[in-house]
Amino acid sequence: MSKEFVIRKIKPEDNPAIARIIRTVMPQFGADGDGFAIKDAEVDTMYEAYSQPRSIYFVVEHHGAVIGGGGIAPLQGGDEHTCELKKMYFLEEARGKGIGQELLNRCLDAALVFGYKVCYLETLEQMGAARKLYEKNGFIRLTKPMGNTGHYGCNRYYAKCLQ
């Protein structure tokens, strides 16, 4: 990853930029209707949503502009040992530069610090680059979703043992 990219914890003033990124990227992959994360109430208040216990959200900056982000939080409807990798999206100019790997590493490291044993995620078949990243990092494809995220529009589910 180039030094011109900075990964840091989200700040309250990042909320509008992250909401814009989510609302820009998800429709590019056909994920703009009901049953997708784009409809989650937290999209407009990501800082507040990820200021909760055992949660963290990182943003990626390029020359001072937020161009992506991703985080972890407890899996809704899951057990205390399972977190979810959530809302990891990048604008086009951030893709293919190793940023996804670095951000994923930060999220998984945080999950371990928080004491999680499993990291779960939901995605789409058409998000091929993301699926390759997850599989390369030891995420195993599941046949059905875990927890109760409300993201019934997703069609690919993965989990990784952290310990």
Q: What integer is the average pLDDT?
A: 95
Neighbour order of strands in the largest sheet: 1-2-3-4-5-7-6
Q: What name does CATH use for the topology?
A: Aminopeptidase
The first-to-last residue Cα distance is 26 Å
From the alpha carbons, calculate the radius of gyration and give it in angstroms: 14 Å
Number of domains: 1
Can you characterise this structure?
There is one protein chain. This protein has helices spanning 15-28, 46-49, 99-113, 128-136, and strands spanning 5-9, 56-62, 65-74, 82-90, 118-123, 140-142, 156-161. It is α+β, with helices and mostly antiparallel strands and 163 residues long. A 7-stranded mixed beta sheet has the order 1-2-3-4-5-7-6, with helices on both faces. The radius of gyration is 14 Å and the shape is globular.
Entry summary:
With 163 residues, the protein is α+β, with helices and mostly antiparallel strands.
Q: Any descriptors?
A:
alpha+beta, 4 helices, 28% strand, 163 residues, Aminopeptidase
What's the SSE blueprint?
Elements: E1 5-9, H1 15-28, H2 46-49, E2 56-62, E3 65-74, E4 82-90, H3 99-113, E5 118-123, H4 128-136, E6 140-142, E7 156-161
